[in-house]
């Protein structure tokens, strides 16, 4: 009798822990999505600022944006194409 009550108590505790982990996982996923959206917005803003500058461009920023664009293009390639593009 006591063992069954303890098992039920442990099972309910495990279930509560699993539910809390699901909540935390959902919250983290939501946070990461929001951070990625803000980062993408920031990158676009910086890119627009660079494109609208009348002065000489910053070579480092230009190369880093070019590298990011190439990285996005590489994602759409096949595995062989990604390795060859490397």
List keywords for this structure.
86 residues, mainly alpha, 2 domains, elongated
Notes on the structure:
With 86 residues, this protein is mostly helical. It folds into 2 domains: 1-52; 55-86. The chain contains 3 helices and no strands. It has helices at 2-52, 59-75, 79-85. It is elongated. The termini are far apart. The mean pLDDT is 85. This is MobA/MobL protein. It comes from Streptococcus anginosus.
Assign a percent range to the helix content: over 70%
What structural class is derived from the secondary structure elements? mainly alpha
Question: Rg to the nearest angstrom?
Answer: 24 Å
Portion of residues in beta strands equals under 5%
What is the first-to-last residue Cα distance?
A: 64 Å
Q: How many discrete domains?
A: 2
The main β sheet shows up as:
none
Number of helices: 3
User: What's the rounded overall pLDDT mean?
Assistant: 85
H-E string: HHH
Contiguous runs where pLDDT drops below 50 for at least 5 residues: none
- Morphology: elongated
Q: Give the total of beta strands.
A: 0
Write the topology of this structure.
Blueprint: H1 2-52, H2 59-75, H3 79-85
Quick recap of the structure?
It comes from Streptococcus anginosus. The chain is mainly α and 86 residues long.
């Amino acid at each position: 009798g006591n063992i069954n009550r303890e098992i039920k108590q442990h099972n309910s505790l495990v279930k509560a822990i699993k539910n809390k982990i699901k909540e935390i996982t959902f919250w983290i996923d939501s946070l990461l999505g929001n951070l990625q959206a803000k980062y993408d917005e920031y990158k676009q803003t910086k890119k627009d600022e660079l494109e609208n500058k009348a002065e000489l461009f910053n070579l480092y920023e230009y190369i880093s944006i070019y590298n990011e664009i190439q990285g996005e293009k590489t994602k759409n390639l096949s595995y062989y194409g990604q390795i060859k593009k490397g």
